[in-house]
Amino acid sequence: MYMMLDTALITEKGDDDMTLKEKYAEAKTVGYMCLCNFGGLEILDTNCEEVVACFNFGNGRENINTHKIIYTSSGRAYFRKMGRRYYLDNIARI
């Protein structure tokens, strides 16, 4: 019986290896939508195809994800987060 040792190369983390939480830890908020008295939905980054959004209820950013922007038949833009639609025209730009 013998044991094989797995040796991995240690490399510096590049932008491709960073998680969204690490990448947007110090990012400024681009837009905000109030969901209750003490927190809401933050938009951290956006382009014409996708949006990076997270929840912030006073204890830091949670559930940072990238979401695809979808358009209704009337042309209204929205994205889905946790099964709910968030329309971009309801989000205040900061």
Description:
With 94 residues, this protein is mainly beta. It has one domain (20-88). 4% of the residues lie in helices and 45% in strands. It contains one helix and eight strands, in the order H-E-E-E-E-E-E-E-E. It has a five-stranded antiparallel beta sheet, with no helix packed on it. A three-stranded antiparallel beta sheet has the order 5-6-7, with no helix packed on it. A hairpin with a 3-residue loop joins strand 2 (39-46) and strand 3 (50-56).
Number of helices: 1
Instruction: Bin the strand percentage.
Output: 35-45%
What value does the Rg take, in angstroms?
18 Å
Structural class: mainly beta
**Which blocks of ≥5 consecutive residues have pLDDT under 50?**
1-13
How is the topology of this model organized?
Blueprint: H1 20-23, E1 31-36, E2 39-46, E3 50-56, E4 61-68, E5 70-71, E6 77-81, E7 84-87, E8 92-93
Question: Main traits of this protein?
Answer:
94 residues, three-stranded antiparallel beta sheet, globular, mainly beta, 1 helix, five-stranded antiparallel beta sheet
Summarize the structure.
The chain has 94 residues and is mostly beta strands.
